[in-house]
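notes to self, project folder thing:

trying the whole complex as one job this time. last attempt i did each chain seperately and stitching them together was a nightmare. two parts in total, labels are on each line so i dont mix them up again. if this works i'll redo the older ones the same way
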Amino acid sequence: MQHASGSRHVNVERWSRGASALHCIDARAKLGALLVFLTAIATTSERTPGIYAGYFVLILVAITMGRLPIPAMLGRAALVLPFSAVFALVTWWAGDPAGALVLVAKSFLSVLAAITLAASTPWVRLLDALASLHVPRPLLLVIQFLYRYLFVVTDQAARMRLAASSRQGAGNGWTRSFHAAAGAVGVLFARSWMRADGVYRAMLARGFTGHFAALAVTPFHRRDAVFLGVSAALAAAVRVVL
Amino acid sequence: MHIPDGFLSPPVWATLDAAAIPAVAWAARQAQTDLERPDDRRIPLLGVMGAFVFAAQMINFPVGLGTSGHLVGGALLAVALGPATAATVMTAVLILQAFILQDGGVMALGANILNMAIGGVLAGYLPYRLWGRGRTREAAIFLGGFVSVALSASLAMTELLISGVPMSRHLLAISGLLFLIGGLIEGAITVAAVRAIERMNPGWVRTAEPLRIRLVVAATLAAAVLASFGVAIASTAPDALQAALSMREGGHSLWFHKAFLGLGAMAMLYAGLLLVGRCAGRPLLDQTGVDQKPRGSA
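result (full assembly):
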Protein backbone atom coordinates (compact mmCIF):
# COMPACT_ATOMS: atom_id res chain seq x y z
CA MET A 1 0.00 0.00 0.00
CA GLN A 2 2.23 2.76 -1.20
CA HIS A 3 0.99 6.27 -1.64
CA ALA A 4 2.72 7.93 -4.50
CA SER A 5 0.34 10.88 -4.25
CA GLY A 6 3.22 13.34 -4.18
CA SER A 7 4.79 12.32 -7.48
CA ARG A 8 1.35 11.83 -9.04
CA HIS A 9 0.62 15.46 -8.52
CA VAL A 10 3.68 16.92 -10.25
CA ASN A 11 1.98 16.88 -13.67
CA VAL A 12 -1.15 18.63 -12.46
CA GLU A 13 0.97 21.31 -10.82
CA ARG A 14 2.79 21.87 -14.13
CA TRP A 15 -0.42 21.92 -16.17
CA SER A 16 -2.01 24.41 -13.79
CA ARG A 17 0.55 27.04 -14.78
CA GLY A 18 -0.63 27.28 -18.38
CA ALA A 19 -1.99 30.42 -19.98
CA SER A 20 -4.91 29.12 -22.04
CA ALA A 21 -8.41 30.57 -22.21
CA LEU A 22 -9.50 28.17 -19.46
CA HIS A 23 -6.56 29.11 -17.24
CA CYS A 24 -7.51 32.78 -17.53
CA ILE A 25 -11.02 32.26 -16.17
CA ASP A 26 -11.45 33.32 -12.55
CA ALA A 27 -11.07 30.39 -10.13
CA ARG A 28 -14.41 31.22 -8.49
CA ALA A 29 -16.20 30.86 -11.81
CA LYS A 30 -14.50 27.52 -12.47
CA LEU A 31 -15.26 26.25 -8.98
CA GLY A 32 -18.90 27.28 -9.36
CA ALA A 33 -19.07 25.56 -12.74
CA LEU A 34 -17.55 22.40 -11.24
CA LEU A 35 -20.09 22.34 -8.41
CA VAL A 36 -23.01 22.73 -10.81
CA PHE A 37 -21.55 20.07 -13.10
CA LEU A 38 -20.97 17.60 -10.25
CA THR A 39 -24.49 18.21 -8.98
CA ALA A 40 -25.85 17.48 -12.45
CA ILE A 41 -23.89 14.21 -12.61
CA ALA A 42 -24.84 13.24 -9.07
CA THR A 43 -28.55 13.70 -9.71
CA THR A 44 -28.46 11.69 -12.94
CA SER A 45 -29.91 8.23 -12.58
CA GLU A 46 -30.92 7.46 -16.20
CA ARG A 47 -29.26 4.53 -17.87
CA THR A 48 -29.16 5.97 -21.39
CA PRO A 49 -25.54 6.23 -22.51
CA GLY A 50 -26.25 9.49 -24.35
CA ILE A 51 -26.40 11.60 -21.23
CA TYR A 52 -23.01 10.39 -20.00
CA ALA A 53 -21.55 10.92 -23.45
CA GLY A 54 -22.92 14.45 -23.27
CA TYR A 55 -21.16 15.13 -19.96
CA PHE A 56 -17.99 13.62 -21.36
CA VAL A 57 -18.11 15.89 -24.40
CA LEU A 58 -18.57 18.92 -22.15
CA ILE A 59 -15.49 18.01 -20.13
CA LEU A 60 -13.53 17.37 -23.33
CA VAL A 61 -14.47 20.85 -24.53
CA ALA A 62 -13.16 22.32 -21.27
CA ILE A 63 -9.95 20.25 -21.51
CA THR A 64 -9.42 21.38 -25.12
CA MET A 65 -10.10 24.96 -24.07
CA GLY A 66 -7.37 24.58 -21.47
CA ARG A 67 -4.99 22.95 -24.03
CA LEU A 68 -4.43 20.11 -21.59
CA PRO A 69 -3.16 16.66 -22.65
CA ILE A 70 -6.28 14.52 -23.00
CA PRO A 71 -4.68 11.03 -22.68
CA ALA A 72 -2.73 11.97 -19.57
CA MET A 73 -5.82 13.51 -17.99
CA LEU A 74 -7.86 10.38 -18.72
CA GLY A 75 -5.08 8.30 -17.19
CA ARG A 76 -5.17 10.38 -14.02
CA ALA A 77 -8.93 10.05 -13.80
CA ALA A 78 -8.66 6.27 -14.26
CA LEU A 79 -7.08 6.06 -10.80
CA VAL A 80 -10.61 6.07 -9.37
CA LEU A 81 -11.54 2.95 -11.32
CA PRO A 82 -10.24 0.29 -8.89
CA PHE A 83 -12.57 1.64 -6.19
CA SER A 84 -15.52 1.90 -8.59
CA ALA A 85 -14.78 -1.52 -10.04
CA VAL A 86 -15.35 -3.30 -6.72
CA PHE A 87 -18.86 -1.90 -6.37
CA ALA A 88 -19.55 -2.17 -10.09
CA LEU A 89 -18.67 -5.86 -10.05
CA VAL A 90 -21.01 -6.48 -7.12
CA THR A 91 -23.79 -4.61 -8.93
CA TRP A 92 -23.14 -6.58 -12.10
CA TRP A 93 -23.09 -9.81 -10.15
CA ALA A 94 -26.42 -8.87 -8.57
CA GLY A 95 -27.88 -8.90 -12.11
CA ASP A 96 -27.75 -5.21 -12.91
CA PRO A 97 -25.03 -4.65 -15.56
CA ALA A 98 -26.48 -1.27 -16.60
CA GLY A 99 -26.34 -0.04 -13.03
CA ALA A 100 -22.71 -1.12 -12.82
CA LEU A 101 -21.80 0.91 -15.91
CA VAL A 102 -23.65 3.95 -14.55
CA LEU A 103 -21.65 3.73 -11.32
CA VAL A 104 -18.34 3.60 -13.20
CA ALA A 105 -19.37 6.40 -15.58
CA LYS A 106 -20.50 8.73 -12.80
CA SER A 107 -17.39 8.32 -10.68
CA PHE A 108 -15.05 8.59 -13.67
CA LEU A 109 -16.73 11.73 -15.04
CA SER A 110 -16.78 13.41 -11.61
CA VAL A 111 -13.07 12.81 -11.11
CA LEU A 112 -12.26 13.97 -14.64
CA ALA A 113 -14.16 17.22 -14.02
CA ALA A 114 -12.33 17.79 -10.73
CA ILE A 115 -8.97 17.17 -12.41
CA THR A 116 -9.85 19.68 -15.12
CA LEU A 117 -10.32 22.33 -12.43
CA ALA A 118 -7.09 21.37 -10.64
CA ALA A 119 -5.10 21.26 -13.91
CA SER A 120 -6.29 24.67 -15.07
CA THR A 121 -6.07 26.59 -11.82
CA PRO A 122 -2.97 27.35 -9.75
CA TRP A 123 -3.49 26.01 -6.24
CA VAL A 124 -3.24 29.45 -4.62
CA ARG A 125 -6.03 30.77 -6.85
CA LEU A 126 -8.15 27.77 -5.92
CA LEU A 127 -7.65 28.61 -2.24
CA ASP A 128 -8.77 32.18 -2.99
CA ALA A 129 -11.92 30.74 -4.52
CA LEU A 130 -12.51 28.59 -1.43
CA ALA A 131 -12.00 31.70 0.72
CA SER A 132 -14.73 33.45 -1.25
CA LEU A 133 -17.03 30.58 -0.26
CA HIS A 134 -16.25 31.51 3.38
CA VAL A 135 -14.14 28.51 4.25
CA PRO A 136 -12.50 29.56 7.57
CA ARG A 137 -9.30 31.43 6.75
CA PRO A 138 -7.09 29.77 9.39
CA LEU A 139 -7.99 26.46 7.79
CA LEU A 140 -6.97 27.80 4.38
CA LEU A 141 -3.68 29.03 5.83
CA VAL A 142 -3.06 25.56 7.28
CA ILE A 143 -3.72 24.08 3.83
CA GLN A 144 -1.29 26.55 2.29
CA PHE A 145 1.45 25.55 4.69
CA LEU A 146 0.58 21.91 4.21
CA TYR A 147 0.94 22.23 0.45
CA ARG A 148 4.16 24.18 0.75
CA TYR A 149 5.85 21.52 2.89
CA LEU A 150 4.16 18.47 1.38
CA PHE A 151 6.95 17.64 -1.02
CA VAL A 152 9.71 18.57 1.44
CA VAL A 153 8.42 16.19 4.09
CA THR A 154 7.41 13.36 1.75
CA ASP A 155 10.83 13.52 0.08
CA GLN A 156 12.38 13.26 3.51
CA ALA A 157 10.26 10.18 4.20
CA ALA A 158 11.30 8.65 0.88
CA ARG A 159 14.96 9.20 1.67
CA MET A 160 14.51 7.67 5.13
CA ARG A 161 12.81 4.65 3.60
CA LEU A 162 15.64 4.19 1.12
CA ALA A 163 18.25 4.55 3.85
CA ALA A 164 16.45 2.07 6.11
CA SER A 165 16.07 -0.56 3.40
CA SER A 166 19.72 -0.25 2.38
CA ARG A 167 20.81 -0.65 6.00
CA GLN A 168 18.69 -3.53 7.17
CA GLY A 169 18.53 -5.72 4.08
CA ALA A 170 16.08 -8.58 3.90
CA GLY A 171 15.19 -11.36 6.30
CA ASN A 172 15.37 -9.40 9.50
CA GLY A 173 12.12 -10.71 10.88
CA TRP A 174 8.99 -8.71 10.66
CA THR A 175 8.79 -7.61 14.30
CA ARG A 176 12.15 -5.91 13.98
CA SER A 177 11.29 -4.15 10.77
CA PHE A 178 7.93 -3.19 12.29
CA HIS A 179 9.76 -1.42 15.09
CA ALA A 180 12.17 0.13 12.62
CA ALA A 181 9.21 1.56 10.72
CA ALA A 182 7.71 2.88 13.96
CA GLY A 183 11.05 4.53 14.70
CA ALA A 184 10.99 6.11 11.27
CA VAL A 185 7.51 7.53 11.91
CA GLY A 186 8.77 8.86 15.25
CA VAL A 187 11.81 10.52 13.68
CA LEU A 188 9.63 11.96 10.94
CA PHE A 189 7.29 13.37 13.58
CA ALA A 190 10.19 14.91 15.48
CA ARG A 191 11.71 16.43 12.35
CA SER A 192 8.34 17.85 11.27
CA TRP A 193 7.81 19.38 14.69
CA MET A 194 11.26 20.96 14.67
CA ARG A 195 10.79 22.09 11.08
CA ALA A 196 7.59 23.86 12.08
CA ASP A 197 9.49 25.60 14.88
CA GLY A 198 12.19 26.60 12.43
CA VAL A 199 9.63 27.87 9.95
CA TYR A 200 8.01 29.96 12.64
CA ARG A 201 11.36 31.43 13.73
CA ALA A 202 12.25 32.24 10.15
CA MET A 203 8.91 34.01 9.81
CA LEU A 204 9.65 36.04 12.93
CA ALA A 205 13.13 36.87 11.65
CA ARG A 206 11.58 38.26 8.49
CA GLY A 207 9.35 40.58 10.44
CA PHE A 208 6.23 38.45 10.92
CA THR A 209 4.09 40.42 13.35
CA GLY A 210 1.60 37.71 14.20
CA HIS A 211 -0.76 38.60 11.40
CA PHE A 212 -1.09 37.19 7.94
CA ALA A 213 -1.69 39.59 5.10
CA ALA A 214 -4.98 39.14 3.29
CA LEU A 215 -4.78 37.19 0.07
CA ALA A 216 -5.05 39.28 -3.05
CA VAL A 217 -8.56 40.15 -4.15
CA THR A 218 -8.95 39.52 -7.86
CA PRO A 219 -11.72 41.17 -9.91
CA PHE A 220 -14.54 39.04 -11.29
CA HIS A 221 -14.81 39.92 -14.97
CA ARG A 222 -17.83 39.67 -17.23
CA ARG A 223 -16.06 36.87 -19.12
CA ASP A 224 -15.92 34.85 -15.88
CA ALA A 225 -19.65 35.34 -15.32
CA VAL A 226 -20.30 34.28 -18.91
CA PHE A 227 -18.17 31.15 -18.46
CA LEU A 228 -20.05 30.22 -15.30
CA GLY A 229 -23.44 30.89 -16.87
CA VAL A 230 -22.72 29.00 -20.08
CA SER A 231 -21.21 25.94 -18.41
CA ALA A 232 -24.05 25.74 -15.90
CA ALA A 233 -26.58 26.06 -18.72
CA LEU A 234 -24.84 23.37 -20.79
CA ALA A 235 -24.65 20.97 -17.85
CA ALA A 236 -28.33 21.56 -17.13
CA ALA A 237 -29.17 21.10 -20.81
CA VAL A 238 -27.40 17.75 -20.97
CA ARG A 239 -29.07 16.74 -17.72
CA VAL A 240 -32.59 17.60 -18.94
CA VAL A 241 -32.54 17.05 -22.70
CA LEU A 242 -30.44 13.92 -23.21
CA MET B 1 -11.32 5.03 2.87
CA HIS B 2 -12.04 8.03 0.68
CA ILE B 3 -15.46 8.01 -1.00
CA PRO B 4 -15.26 9.33 -4.57
CA ASP B 5 -18.04 11.31 -6.22
CA GLY B 6 -20.74 9.34 -7.99
CA PHE B 7 -21.48 6.92 -5.14
CA LEU B 8 -23.41 8.87 -2.54
CA SER B 9 -26.95 9.93 -3.36
CA PRO B 10 -27.65 13.69 -3.36
CA PRO B 11 -29.61 13.75 -0.08
CA VAL B 12 -26.79 11.87 1.64
CA TRP B 13 -23.88 13.99 0.47
CA ALA B 14 -25.81 17.23 0.86
CA THR B 15 -26.76 16.41 4.45
CA LEU B 16 -23.24 15.36 5.31
CA ASP B 17 -21.73 18.46 3.65
CA ALA B 18 -24.10 20.63 5.65
CA ALA B 19 -23.24 18.75 8.85
CA ALA B 20 -19.50 19.01 8.20
CA ILE B 21 -19.57 22.81 8.09
CA PRO B 22 -20.29 23.52 11.77
CA ALA B 23 -18.05 20.60 12.78
CA VAL B 24 -15.09 22.01 10.87
CA ALA B 25 -15.77 25.53 12.13
CA TRP B 26 -15.83 24.19 15.69
CA ALA B 27 -12.57 22.29 15.21
CA ALA B 28 -10.77 25.23 13.60
CA ARG B 29 -11.92 27.59 16.31
CA GLN B 30 -11.14 25.18 19.12
CA ALA B 31 -7.73 24.47 17.62
CA GLN B 32 -6.84 28.12 17.97
CA THR B 33 -7.88 28.50 21.59
CA ASP B 34 -6.64 25.02 22.49
CA LEU B 35 -3.04 25.94 22.22
CA GLU B 36 -0.80 26.66 25.07
CA ARG B 37 0.25 29.76 23.22
CA PRO B 38 -2.70 31.12 21.33
CA ASP B 39 -0.84 32.75 18.48
CA ASP B 40 -0.27 32.11 14.83
CA ARG B 41 2.69 29.90 15.62
CA ARG B 42 0.23 27.08 15.35
CA ILE B 43 -0.56 27.59 11.72
CA PRO B 44 2.88 26.55 10.44
CA LEU B 45 2.85 23.67 12.94
CA LEU B 46 -0.54 22.46 11.76
CA GLY B 47 0.48 22.75 8.12
CA VAL B 48 3.74 20.87 8.55
CA MET B 49 1.96 18.20 10.60
CA GLY B 50 -0.45 17.76 7.71
CA ALA B 51 2.55 17.14 5.46
CA PHE B 52 3.79 14.68 8.11
CA VAL B 53 0.55 12.71 7.77
CA PHE B 54 1.12 12.30 4.04
CA ALA B 55 4.75 11.34 4.57
CA ALA B 56 4.03 8.91 7.41
CA GLN B 57 1.56 7.11 5.15
CA MET B 58 4.46 6.32 2.81
CA ILE B 59 6.27 4.29 5.45
CA ASN B 60 5.46 0.60 5.16
CA PHE B 61 4.83 -1.51 8.21
CA PRO B 62 5.26 -5.25 7.64
CA VAL B 63 2.26 -7.01 9.15
CA GLY B 64 3.17 -10.58 8.38
CA LEU B 65 2.33 -12.90 5.49
CA GLY B 66 4.35 -10.69 3.19
CA THR B 67 1.84 -7.85 3.29
CA SER B 68 2.30 -4.39 4.68
CA GLY B 69 0.08 -1.64 6.02
CA HIS B 70 0.58 1.98 6.80
CA LEU B 71 -0.41 4.52 9.39
CA VAL B 72 -3.62 6.47 8.83
CA GLY B 73 -2.72 8.90 11.56
CA GLY B 74 -5.96 10.21 13.05
CA ALA B 75 -5.43 8.69 16.48
CA LEU B 76 -1.72 9.52 16.57
CA LEU B 77 -2.38 13.18 15.82
CA ALA B 78 -5.25 13.29 18.32
CA VAL B 79 -3.02 11.94 21.08
CA ALA B 80 -0.13 14.23 20.17
CA LEU B 81 -1.89 17.49 19.31
CA GLY B 82 -5.30 17.17 20.94
CA PRO B 83 -8.55 16.30 19.18
CA ALA B 84 -9.54 19.72 17.80
CA THR B 85 -6.12 20.45 16.35
CA ALA B 86 -5.87 16.96 14.92
CA ALA B 87 -9.32 17.30 13.34
CA THR B 88 -8.26 20.58 11.74
CA VAL B 89 -5.08 19.04 10.34
CA MET B 90 -6.98 16.03 8.96
CA THR B 91 -9.59 18.35 7.42
CA ALA B 92 -6.82 20.28 5.67
CA VAL B 93 -5.38 16.98 4.42
CA LEU B 94 -8.76 15.87 3.06
CA ILE B 95 -9.48 19.18 1.31
CA LEU B 96 -6.08 19.05 -0.37
CA GLN B 97 -6.66 15.44 -1.41
CA ALA B 98 -10.10 16.15 -2.81
CA PHE B 99 -9.12 19.16 -4.86
CA ILE B 100 -5.71 18.31 -6.22
CA LEU B 101 -5.01 14.63 -5.64
CA GLN B 102 -8.53 13.38 -6.40
CA ASP B 103 -8.49 11.10 -3.36
CA GLY B 104 -12.13 11.39 -2.44
CA GLY B 105 -14.77 13.40 -4.25
CA VAL B 106 -15.53 17.11 -4.05
CA MET B 107 -19.22 16.59 -3.31
CA ALA B 108 -18.33 13.74 -0.96
CA LEU B 109 -15.90 16.01 0.92
CA GLY B 110 -18.33 16.57 3.78
CA ALA B 111 -18.83 12.83 4.15
CA ASN B 112 -15.10 12.15 4.11
CA ILE B 113 -14.41 14.95 6.60
CA LEU B 114 -17.07 13.67 8.99
CA ASN B 115 -15.89 10.06 8.65
CA MET B 116 -12.18 10.60 9.01
CA ALA B 117 -11.31 14.08 10.27
CA ILE B 118 -14.12 14.46 12.80
CA GLY B 119 -15.42 10.95 13.59
CA GLY B 120 -12.11 9.15 13.21
CA VAL B 121 -10.14 11.69 15.23
CA LEU B 122 -12.66 12.09 18.06
CA ALA B 123 -13.17 8.34 18.31
CA GLY B 124 -9.40 7.90 18.32
CA TYR B 125 -9.01 10.35 21.16
CA LEU B 126 -11.88 9.13 23.34
CA PRO B 127 -10.20 5.99 24.79
CA TYR B 128 -7.08 8.02 25.53
CA ARG B 129 -9.15 10.60 27.32
CA LEU B 130 -10.96 7.91 29.30
CA TRP B 131 -8.13 5.53 30.15
CA GLY B 132 -5.00 7.38 29.06
CA ARG B 133 -3.44 7.61 32.53
CA GLY B 134 -1.43 5.00 34.36
CA ARG B 135 -1.24 1.35 33.39
CA THR B 136 -4.03 1.36 30.85
CA ARG B 137 -2.33 4.07 28.78
CA GLU B 138 -0.92 1.95 25.98
CA ALA B 139 -4.06 -0.13 25.78
CA ALA B 140 -6.01 3.12 25.43
CA ILE B 141 -3.76 4.31 22.60
CA PHE B 142 -4.14 0.95 20.85
CA LEU B 143 -7.91 1.08 21.25
CA GLY B 144 -7.89 4.65 19.92
CA GLY B 145 -6.13 3.58 16.74
CA PHE B 146 -8.46 0.63 16.33
CA VAL B 147 -11.68 2.57 16.91
CA SER B 148 -10.52 5.44 14.71
CA VAL B 149 -10.05 3.29 11.61
CA ALA B 150 -12.96 0.93 12.27
CA LEU B 151 -15.38 3.82 12.81
CA SER B 152 -14.26 5.82 9.76
CA ALA B 153 -14.57 2.78 7.53
CA SER B 154 -17.93 1.64 8.85
CA LEU B 155 -19.33 5.17 8.60
CA ALA B 156 -18.24 5.25 4.96
CA MET B 157 -19.78 1.85 4.33
CA THR B 158 -23.02 2.89 6.02
CA GLU B 159 -23.25 6.04 3.92
CA LEU B 160 -22.76 4.02 0.75
CA LEU B 161 -25.43 1.60 1.90
CA ILE B 162 -27.95 4.36 2.65
CA SER B 163 -27.20 5.81 -0.77
CA GLY B 164 -28.43 2.60 -2.33
CA VAL B 165 -25.06 1.34 -3.57
CA PRO B 166 -25.78 -2.38 -3.88
CA MET B 167 -23.76 -4.58 -1.61
CA SER B 168 -23.91 -8.30 -1.23
CA ARG B 169 -23.68 -9.98 2.14
CA HIS B 170 -20.30 -11.32 1.10
CA LEU B 171 -18.94 -7.87 0.36
CA LEU B 172 -20.22 -6.60 3.70
CA ALA B 173 -18.67 -9.54 5.53
CA ILE B 174 -15.34 -9.20 3.73
CA SER B 175 -15.15 -5.46 4.27
CA GLY B 176 -16.10 -5.88 7.92
CA LEU B 177 -13.21 -8.28 8.32
CA LEU B 178 -10.87 -5.87 6.50
CA PHE B 179 -11.94 -2.99 8.77
CA LEU B 180 -11.23 -5.17 11.78
CA ILE B 181 -7.75 -6.05 10.54
CA GLY B 182 -7.11 -2.47 9.46
CA GLY B 183 -8.11 -1.26 12.92
CA LEU B 184 -5.80 -3.73 14.65
CA ILE B 185 -2.90 -2.67 12.42
CA GLU B 186 -3.59 1.02 13.05
CA GLY B 187 -3.72 0.38 16.80
CA ALA B 188 -0.39 -1.45 16.78
CA ILE B 189 1.30 1.17 14.61
CA THR B 190 -0.06 4.03 16.73
CA VAL B 191 1.27 2.48 19.95
CA ALA B 192 4.68 1.82 18.39
CA ALA B 193 4.89 5.33 16.93
CA VAL B 194 3.87 6.99 20.22
CA ARG B 195 6.57 4.98 22.00
CA ALA B 196 9.17 6.06 19.45
CA ILE B 197 8.11 9.71 19.72
CA GLU B 198 8.18 9.67 23.52
CA ARG B 199 11.66 8.17 23.54
CA MET B 200 12.85 11.32 21.82
CA ASN B 201 10.78 13.86 23.71
CA PRO B 202 7.97 12.95 26.10
CA GLY B 203 6.67 16.50 25.84
CA TRP B 204 5.50 15.89 22.28
CA VAL B 205 2.66 13.67 23.38
CA ARG B 206 -0.09 15.22 25.46
CA THR B 207 -0.87 13.78 28.84
CA ALA B 208 -4.49 12.76 29.14
CA GLU B 209 -6.40 15.35 31.10
CA PRO B 210 -8.27 14.30 34.22
CA LEU B 211 -11.69 13.02 33.44
CA ARG B 212 -14.84 15.02 33.74
CA ILE B 213 -18.10 13.21 34.33
CA ARG B 214 -19.90 15.22 31.62
CA LEU B 215 -17.59 13.76 29.03
CA VAL B 216 -18.32 10.19 30.08
CA VAL B 217 -22.02 10.78 29.80
CA ALA B 218 -21.60 12.37 26.38
CA ALA B 219 -19.37 9.54 25.22
CA THR B 220 -21.76 6.86 26.39
CA LEU B 221 -24.59 8.65 24.70
CA ALA B 222 -22.68 9.02 21.44
CA ALA B 223 -21.73 5.35 21.53
CA ALA B 224 -25.32 4.31 22.17
CA VAL B 225 -26.60 6.46 19.32
CA LEU B 226 -23.94 5.15 16.95
CA ALA B 227 -24.61 1.56 17.91
CA SER B 228 -28.36 1.83 17.50
CA PHE B 229 -27.83 3.66 14.21
CA GLY B 230 -25.66 0.81 13.02
CA VAL B 231 -28.16 -1.83 14.10
CA ALA B 232 -30.99 0.05 12.43
CA ILE B 233 -29.03 0.31 9.19
CA ALA B 234 -28.07 -3.33 9.31
CA SER B 235 -31.61 -4.50 9.85
CA THR B 236 -33.10 -2.26 7.17
CA ALA B 237 -30.36 -2.81 4.61
CA PRO B 238 -32.42 -5.06 2.34
CA ASP B 239 -35.27 -2.55 2.41
CA ALA B 240 -32.95 0.32 1.58
CA LEU B 241 -31.66 -1.68 -1.35
CA GLN B 242 -35.12 -2.40 -2.57
CA ALA B 243 -36.13 1.21 -2.20
CA ALA B 244 -33.13 2.28 -4.25
CA LEU B 245 -34.00 -0.19 -6.99
CA SER B 246 -37.63 0.85 -7.17
CA MET B 247 -36.55 4.48 -7.31
CA ARG B 248 -34.39 3.65 -10.30
CA GLU B 249 -37.27 2.04 -12.11
CA GLY B 250 -39.25 5.23 -11.80
CA GLY B 251 -36.11 7.21 -12.62
CA HIS B 252 -37.46 9.29 -15.47
CA SER B 253 -40.44 10.68 -13.60
CA LEU B 254 -38.25 11.45 -10.65
CA TRP B 255 -35.51 13.40 -12.36
CA PHE B 256 -37.10 16.75 -11.64
CA HIS B 257 -37.50 15.83 -8.01
CA LYS B 258 -33.87 14.78 -7.84
CA ALA B 259 -32.52 17.80 -9.68
CA PHE B 260 -34.55 20.00 -7.38
CA LEU B 261 -33.13 18.17 -4.38
CA GLY B 262 -29.61 18.66 -5.69
CA LEU B 263 -30.06 22.36 -6.34
CA GLY B 264 -31.78 22.84 -3.01
CA ALA B 265 -28.89 21.05 -1.36
CA MET B 266 -26.40 23.35 -3.04
CA ALA B 267 -28.33 26.42 -1.95
CA MET B 268 -28.51 25.04 1.57
CA LEU B 269 -24.79 24.33 1.49
CA TYR B 270 -23.94 27.85 0.47
CA ALA B 271 -26.31 29.38 2.99
CA GLY B 272 -24.76 27.21 5.67
CA LEU B 273 -21.27 28.27 4.63
CA LEU B 274 -22.26 31.92 4.78
CA LEU B 275 -23.91 31.53 8.14
CA VAL B 276 -20.99 29.70 9.65
CA GLY B 277 -18.63 32.18 8.08
CA ARG B 278 -20.52 34.95 9.83
CA CYS B 279 -20.81 33.22 13.19
CA ALA B 280 -17.61 31.28 13.54
CA GLY B 281 -15.36 32.78 10.93
CA ARG B 282 -15.48 36.35 12.18
CA PRO B 283 -13.64 35.91 15.47
CA LEU B 284 -11.12 33.73 13.66
CA LEU B 285 -10.55 36.41 11.08
CA ASP B 286 -10.03 38.98 13.79
CA GLN B 287 -7.59 36.75 15.60
CA THR B 288 -5.44 36.21 12.57
CA GLY B 289 -5.73 39.86 11.72
CA VAL B 290 -6.91 39.15 8.20
CA ASP B 291 -9.19 42.04 7.55
CA GLN B 292 -9.64 44.33 4.67
CA LYS B 293 -9.18 47.55 6.63
CA PRO B 294 -5.88 49.27 5.92
CA ARG B 295 -3.60 49.24 8.92
CA GLY B 296 -1.84 52.42 9.88
CA SER B 297 1.50 52.13 8.16
CA ALA B 298 4.50 54.15 9.15
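what i see at first glance: Chain B is about 75% helix and 0% strand.
need to look closer tmrw
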